[in-house]
Automatic annotation (TrEMBL), chain A:
<dbReference type="Pfam" id="PF03966">
    <property type="entry name" value="Trm112p"/>
</dbReference>
<protein>
    <recommendedName>
        <fullName>Trm112 family protein</fullName>
    </recommendedName>
</protein>
<dbReference type="InterPro" id="IPR005651">
    <property type="entry name" value="Trm112-like"/>
</dbReference>
From TrEMBL, chain B:
<keyword id="KW-0489">Methyltransferase</keyword>
<dbReference type="GO" id="GO:0006400">
    <property type="term" value="P:tRNA modification"/>
</dbReference>
<feature type="region of interest" description="Disordered">
    <location>
        <begin position="1"/>
        <end position="21"/>
    </location>
</feature>
<dbReference type="InterPro" id="IPR029063">
    <property type="entry name" value="SAM-dependent_MTases_sf"/>
</dbReference>
<dbReference type="GO" id="GO:0008175">
    <property type="term" value="F:tRNA methyltransferase activity"/>
</dbReference>
<keyword id="KW-0808">Transferase</keyword>
<dbReference type="InterPro" id="IPR013216">
    <property type="entry name" value="Methyltransf_11"/>
</dbReference>
<feature type="domain" description="Methyltransferase type 11">
    <location>
        <begin position="62"/>
        <end position="159"/>
    </location>
</feature>
<dbReference type="GO" id="GO:0032259">
    <property type="term" value="P:methylation"/>
</dbReference>
Amino acid sequence: MNESLLDILCCPLDKHDLELEDAEYDDDDVVGGELVCTECGEAYPIEDGIPNLLPPDMREETPA
Amino acid sequence: MAEDRNRARDRTESRDEGTRRADVRDTYDRIADHFASTREYAWPEVEAFVETHASDGTGVGLDLGCGNCRHAELLAADLESVVGLDVSRGLLETGHARALERGFAVDLIQGDAAALPLATDSIDVAVYVATLHHLPTRTARTASLDELARVLSPGGRALVSAWSTAHDKFEETEGFDTTIEWTLPGGETVDRFYHIYAPDEFEAELAGSTLECCEVELSSGNCYATVTATGSNA
């Protein structure tokens, strides 16, 4: 994920800004870390460079 | 009274809304690789739209329900940057692979079309193609159209398409919910949810959203609408 993408990303629930936390980089790419909503505090994981911004009720792992 | 009925319906639908949308995610995660391998070429209707609305090399594009990013690839050629959003992580991986192979840039996001993680007015050109009909409830489908209107910049344009009863495959004239099997190479079948739109129903759903219709057409059994955000001056 390119860090400049943060300019247009927002929390899917309340549409407030997101802050990048615990970022892991590979050159200029953000490959890990979390995007945290500055309003509701919901944290969205960055998984292998792709932010998972599904609403929390759709994010849960598939039951076996 | 109609509003009461709508509220009652909304309550019933919202109970398992998240679960049903997660089911769509799981389905496409299962079939992602095979599905993507059969989706090589961009649709001509999308090519025509991109040619008309994204030709000056500026602006931000969105491929909503991007799958393997075949349409993000078209947008990338004509815009400054492109976001590819899909509910399925498996499909996003196929999009990532295609972008690497063909050397185009796309910012991938896993997300829900009915709850977009994108800022208001952030998108100049969007394609929302063959995705709306996979959202399992009318509430989710209408929410996704309102979300598209929210993220479109003033003067921004989007192309929305959905499968329709006008296709030869269907005898029905009213819109309906169904499942259509996807057959994997080993013969295993996976059911996929579809809401098949009657053309007038498709138009009514757009009219009921905060999108404004510029042009609607039927092509190859699909309804297409070129839309902009309501109140947009351009």
